[in-house]
Structures are given as structure tokens and as C-alpha cells.
Write a structure and sequence with these properties.
The chain has helices spanning about 15-30, 50-55, and strands spanning about 5-10, 35-40. The chain is α+β, with helices and mostly antiparallel strands. Helix 1 links the parallel strand 1 and strand 2.
């Protein structure tokens, strides 16, 4: 039998809400199950969190 998952890394590579939202949902679901979750934003993914690009 395999060991349970303890950590996940999720890569966000789109700068739109449609590109970021699924990663946030998966990370939230992992945390609710007690799994450590990390989000990694690529350069294009950073457009979603930079105020200058969204304003």
C-alpha cells in the first residue's frame, strides 16, 4: 500500500482569474485534507497578483 500524500506543489502559469482560480481551489482542498500546499507563480502567472497588471 502506498503512503499518503504529504505535500503538493501547484504551478500557476496564467495571469488571468481563470488561470489562477483552479490552483487556489486545489491548494485550499489540499490544506483542508491536512496536506502541505505550495503555489509557484511563473512570470505570466505573476500578472494575476501584480497590482499594475490588474489595475
Amino acid at each position: 500500500m502506498s503512503e499518503p500524500i504529504k505535500k503538493v506543489s501547484i504551478i500557476i502559469s496564467r495571469g488571468s482569474l481563470e488561470g489562477v482560480y483552479p490552483g487556489l481551489i486545489m491548494a485550499n482542498g489540499a490544506r483542508m485534507e491536512g496536506i502541505e500546499a505550495q503555489l509557484f507563480f511563473t512570470f505570466f502567472g505573476l500578472h494575476a497578483v501584480l497590482e499594475k497588471k490588474n489595475g
